[in-house]
Structure formats: structure tokens, C-alpha cells
Amino acid sequence: MRYLHIENARLIDPSQNLDQVTDVYVAEGRIHAIGHKPASGGIEHSIDASGLLLVPGLIDLGAHLAEPGFTHKGSIASETRAACASGFTHVCALPDTKPVADSPAVIQLIQEKAAKAGFAKVLPLGALTQGLAGEQLASMFSLREAGCVALSNARAPFKDSYVLRRVMEYAATYDIPVFLNPDDAALSDGGCMHEGPTATRLGLTGIPQTAETIALAQMLLLVEQTGVRAHISQISCARSVRMLAQAREQGIRVSADTPLANLIYTDEAVTGYNSQFNVQPPLRSESDRQALLAAVNAGELAISSNHRPHEVAAKKAPFADAEPGMSIFDGFLPLALQLVERGELELSAFIRATSALPAQVLGQNQSLSEGNWFNAVLINPDAEQSFRRSTLLSKGRNSPVAGKTLKGAVNAVFIDGRKVFG
Amino acid sequence: MTTDPSQVQLTADGRLKHFLTTEGLSRELLTEILDTADSFISTQERDVKKVPLLRGKTVVNLFFENSTRTRSTFELAAKRLSADILNLDIAKSATAKGETLMDTLWNLEAMYSDMFVVRHADSGAAHFIAEHVTPNVAIINAGDGRHAHPTQAMLDMLTIRRHQGSIEGKIVAIVGDILHSRVARSQIHALRTLGAAEIRVIGPGTLLPRDIEALGCKAYYRMEDGLKDCDVIIMLRLQKERMQNALLPSEGEFFKLYGLTEEKLTYAKPDAIVMHPGPINRGVEIESNVADGPQSVILNQVSYGIAVRMAVMAMAMSGQQQERNELAEQNIEQNNEHNNEPDQEEA
Fold this sequence. Notes:
The complex is a heterodimer.
Chain A: E1 2-13, E2 18-27, E3 30-34, E4 42-48, E5 53-56, E6 58-63, H1 76-84, E7 88-93, H2 104-117, E8 121-127, H3 140-145, E9 150-152, H4 161-173, E10 178-180, H5 185-188, E11 193-194, H6 197-202, E12 206-207, H7 209-226, E13 230-232, H8 238-249, E14 254-259, H9 260-264, H10 286-297, E15 302-304, H11 312-315, H12 332-341, H13 347-362, E16 376-386, E17 405-415, E18 418-421
Parallel strand pairs in A: 1-4, 1-5, 6-7, 7-8, 8-9, 9-10, 10-13, 11-12, 13-14, 14-15
Antiparallel strand pairs in A: 1-2, 2-3, 5-16, 16-17, 17-18
Helix pairs in contact in A: 1-2, 4-7, 7-8
Chain B: H1 5-8, H2 27-44, E1 58-63, H3 68-80, E2 84-89, H4 98-110, E3 115-120, H5 125-133, E4 138-144, H6 150-164, E5 171-175, H7 182-193, E6 198-202, E7 218-220, H8 223-226, E8 232-235, H9 241-244, H10 251-258, H11 262-265, E9 273-275, H12 288-291, H13 298-340, H14 342-346
Parallel strand pairs in B: 1-2, 1-3, 3-4, 5-6, 5-8, 6-7, 8-9
Helix pairs in contact in B: 2-6, 2-13, 3-13, 6-7, 6-13
């Protein structure tokens, strides 16, 4: 047997409490040995990883890949490549494409495009309702059969609590996991940022925290009643963190994630009407941000990208008219490492929140342990990256790191033992 | 990157080159606007009302939202400064997307316009135009969404100064629909900078925006409490659609609680003045006896409006012109440097 030999890497895998400088031997796509040379076989290729981190490949629980339907904003190839630049090996693709990912044919198309691109693996999230209209159930069983890891309605609302209940009941019948974005459409209607002092000062319509927490309360009660396997996507409020903790205490099985942007920025970023910060869920207050960080550090909350690429024109408008979303894949890793450097986010918590926790949600095993598929990323935490609009890998021009120089870069990404990036 | 609105409107040496918001402007600058407006009031009382400050300049009134009154006062102000004025009423529906808005503006810029007076339904629209679309055209904000209506606020400041002597130390109450009011926001910033002792907002919880006190004012639900010892009462216009959006039960109940009557006026100081940005809904925000009464300065506000708009337009045009001249000089210098060192460039 011939091995890929990664030498002197600082292997960090919080799922096994590992943080040590060691050697890793990979053969036939799997980890063959850690720390000791296998008894037989030779080395095919060696990588000197001194000074580099070797961590489990990142798994994104929610990104907008823009294809099919919005290829002027991004393509599966461009966006999964940008995802690799921040160490993602797997990306859950939200179903709000055109056509909506509510039929096996669209799922197949997405899978084919992703396989052809050969960067991060795309895990499709099928639609929960037909056309995401929130009224009629999508063919959930067929979507699951076609390869959807879970089903979601993105941020599109359900017509009423009756539909939400039936969606959960039906999914529970076949043990299909559902991803739910808590948002009470009547309360968030017309809003474009967090309701608070900044929105009042700027004269922009706010989205109250209760738009999220009321929807979340309803979802948690129905999760309890139906027993569906549920994951709450993209929470933004401190109160939601507490509500989730209480639900778990009562024995409700529910996981959750928050977008990275909500860990970095607050509503004050909108001062000056910078449409870059028109995002959904909205950037909230400093106390919300602190509560989300605390939950991530405690290992209770996963981090998603909520990546959403846009062309220049989509953002070149007065704030409320700009399309919401941030193209964050290119800058995801260095922005997160900036939080680590500032002491706000523990490095191991970041890795757990982007690998072990999402893997658990999806029922996968992303641990770097002997016998497992080698899905991993080599990171140079000290390498500086200068981001220019013209050199961003995402097709989206709405990147928060454009024009910035930040520390931390991906050296290589491995999927099933194969180097796909770097 | 987008910068703070208050900085976008200033030249490097702190002069006005656009007028987007009263927020973040210094007391000196706000006072300069008021002093300049004061000097124009005397010219308005003459037979020949024109001054040549904007002669040869083209001003475009760009109203994406309808407003006959504000547009007319800007038109008169521009004419009295001897500018050429073009009025464009563009319904928002025609320019719902940013791209179309930008195309419209670039076309007008290509016609050598010097100043845009902009009213738009989106908060931040004037700021967006000044920063991203036509930075070399002076932008005067004639109202953007719920954000700001700085010329209205400044004419209100002028009214207070002329009728109460100064703004410093005064207690000012703003009454009614604060939630949707760009006027109130601009007034609060100006009042705070100019040294008002206390700024109060009075209205029901549904019409007071969340965290309004963070702007530096105090919120009251009852007229009796809010008007106590006030020197200035500013009544805001109530739009009829507020009833449909479940913000208020009825005009009648609003009038009962917040309509300014002679009785409620007695809560304030005896010499308090009553203001209203217009147009008035008699019997909704204010009783006719009060609107037409001795303490009302509502019509004075209208006539000061022209002087304030003349002042702001003249000051912004001068700042914009200064910046253009500096830019032109820099270009000449760069060209000269370039011409003097041709060998280096080639090597």
C-alpha cells in the first residue's frame, strides 16, 4: 500500500479531544494511521505540514449557491471552489433556486454540476413545500431518495401553523430531518435590519427579535409534538439561544446554527447605509452577538456560512432596496480566525461548530480517526491573504473582505483522501 | 466602503458640500446655516428678491415622492439665487430598482447639472446618491423615507430662534407620529446640537419607534406630562393610512389623546410657541383655534422655509465648487508633473 504522509501537522479534532503535533498516513481515501508509521507499505507522497493546522473538513449547514437560476450571481462550480478556499469539504445547498429544488430532477442536476466541478461536496437540501410556497407538501420521500440530506423551506414562510404541523408530521413518518428558519413573516414584513436604536436613527424599518423567537417557540412545540428530527437554521437572538437550551432540558432533540456574520458584526455596521450589511437574519445587538458566541464556545451552536453571492447591481441601491445577503465563503476562515485572535471564539469551539456539530446534524462522521474517510483541511494560520474584488473565487461581489488583508489561509483541502484544493 | 452620512456631506476642511442630514454636523455649521438664512430673510422683504449666488448653475428638483409644497419652496429658493431650475416628478414606481435610479441620475449629470434636490421614499436614498452615484453634484436632501428632512428641521430651528430668542436651554416637545417622521429625527439631532435643555417626544407606543430615547430625547405617553413647562410644541402630521396598519384605532381617539387644544396648550409655558411642518389636519392633530391662535407660528415657518433653503443651497454649492476647483488644480498639477518628467515615465 502507498501512503500520503502528512508530517508534523498540528492535528486538532475537538470531537476526540485531540490537539497534538503528529503525522497522518492516508491510503485509499481513508486515514490509515495517526502518529505511527504503518507496518507495511511505502510513502507515495509527503507533505511537510510544520506550522500548519490539520483539522476535520468544514461542513456548511446552509449556503445559497445561486444555481440553477441565478448564474449571474454565482455557479455551483464558483461557489464550491470559494467554499474550499475556507476549508469546506461539504456544503448544504439551500433549495431557493430557480426552479426551486422541490423535485428529484433539480436535485439530480445540482448533484451532477457539483460532481463535475469537483470542489466541495454539495449536500442538497430539498424544499419542504412545493415551490417553497408554504402551502402544499413537496414530495419529501422522493427528495430524500434522490439524495437530499434534509429538507428546508429556506426563509420562505409557511402559510400557517397547520401547514407547519403537517410538514413536520409527514417528515417524521420517514425520519427525514428538517431544517427550519424561524421567522414570523407578519412581524418581519417590510423590515430590513434589526429593530433597535440604529434602525430608529437611520429611519429603516426594523425586524424585531420576536419575529424570530415567536416562530421558534411555535416550531419547538411542534417538534415536541411530532417528534421530527429538527435543526433550527440561522438563529440571531440571545433569547433563541436560551429557548433552545430550555427545550433540550425538556428532552426535545433539536440542534441549531448561527451565521458567521452574526458572530462578527452587529446592527451598528449598518450605520452609513452600507448595503453590504443588509442580510437575513439581520445583524443584531452586541448582547445578541455575545450570547451567540457563548453558545458556540459552549459547544451548543453550530456555525453556518449563510453564503449568498450577488452581482454588483443587486447591492447598488438604497439600503432597503438592496438584495439581502453576503458572499462570505472567500473570507469565512480568516474572519473566524480573527475572532479567535481577539479571544472571542475558542479555536477548538470554532472547529467543533463547523465540523463535528454539523456532522452530527447530518448523521455523518467527520472525525480524523483511523479508518475514517480523510476529509480534512490544512490551514496556515499565519499566512496573510489580500482580498481584491477581482481575485475573489466566489462570483459574488458582495464580500465583506474585499480590499482587506487578513491572516489565515487554506493550504490544502482533502475530500475522501483526494486533494481538491490548494 | 460606505461612510457615515454626516461625513459624506462635508469637504475635507469641514464645509458643507451636500446637505443630507442634521446628524453629526457641528454647532458652528448649524449656526452658520441659521445666520445665512437670517440674512436672506431681509432680502426677501425687498422688492427685488433675487441674489446672484447661483447664477449660471443648474438645479434639478428630483422628486421621487410627490410634494407640491416642499418642491415649490425649493423652486422659489433656487430662482431667488438666480439658478436655472428643472422640475422632475418621477413616481417611485418607475424607478423601483436601484439601477434605473442610477441611470436617471447619470443622465441628468451628463446634462451638466450642478445640484440635485432629492426626495425619495427610501431612507438613505440621498446619502446613496451622494456617495455612490453623482458625488460631484451637490445633493440636497428634501426628505428620504423616515430618515431625514434636514431643511425642514433647520427652518424649524430658525423659527424657534426668531420667536424664542434662542434654542439653548429650551424645552421642546414633538407630538404625534414619531415612528414615520423624518422631520422629527432631523429636529432631534439639530435641537440636541444647538443646546436644547430637553427634547421630548409624545405619542402612543405604536407611533414611538423602538429605542427612540437613544437619540437623546425622552418619551412621554401623556400630553399632560410631556407638555409641562414646554417652550416649544411641534405637532406632526398624522397620515390616514396609520389607521389601516393597526397603529391607531381612529382619528377621533388620537385627537382626544394627542390633539392640541386650547386646554392642552395650558400645560405648556404661557409663552410657548406652536409649530407644525404642514399641511395641517385640522381637528386631527390640532384644533383650529390653536392653529390660528396667537401662539401659532405655523405660517412664519413657511416663509422662513425659502430663506433656509436658499442658505443651504448657497453653502453646499460653494463647498461643492471649492472641491471641484481643488480637484481641477490637482489634475493640472499631476499633468504638469507628468509633462516635466517624461523620461522617467518612459524608463
